[in-house]
Amino acid sequence: MEESTRKRFCKICKSPIKGRSDKVFCGAICKAYYHNKLKEVTNKATASTDSILHRNRSILLEIMGKNGSQIKVLKTVLEKKNFKFHYLTGFYENAQNKRYHIVYDFAWMDFKTGEILIVRRK
Q: Which InterPro entries match (predicted)?
């Protein structure tokens, strides 16, 4: 049977689909249902990680303050605030091959001296 004459059925309610050949849903209700369920599953899977990332960002903001652009603190300051060093949103290496650990709009770099440089990213 040719593609254009083959019956297509909605991914959600299984009713026949009319219209464009690339449609997957019968209408807006089924399409919205599908995407809402997909978002719900994703949110459940990422909720605990997102919570830790937001907490890490809040800790960095608290230390930096609203208007600061960079500050150096002892690593123990972050540890006492329960900062989770392994939860990041990315990495960045500068021209001197120093690695920054990124948490949203903040980055930090640790030194062998036990200090952490925190910078606000632009």
A: Znf_RING/FYVE/PHD
Length of the chain measured in residues = 122
Cα–Cα distance between 39 and 43 in angstroms, integer?
A: 6
Contact 11, 30 (CB under 8 A): yes
Helix (H, G, I), strand (E, B) or coil at 7: coil
Question: Which pair of tokens denotes residue 17?
Answer: 């689909």
Q: Which two tokens stand for residue 59?
A: 């800790």
Q: Are 76 and 121 in contact (CB under 8 A)?
A: no
CA distance 90 to 99: 10
Give the type of residue at 39. Answer: K
Of residues 50, 52, 121, 64, the one with CA closest to residue 91: 121
Digit-coded pLDDT (tens) for 18-48? 999 999 999 999 999 999 999 999 999 999 9
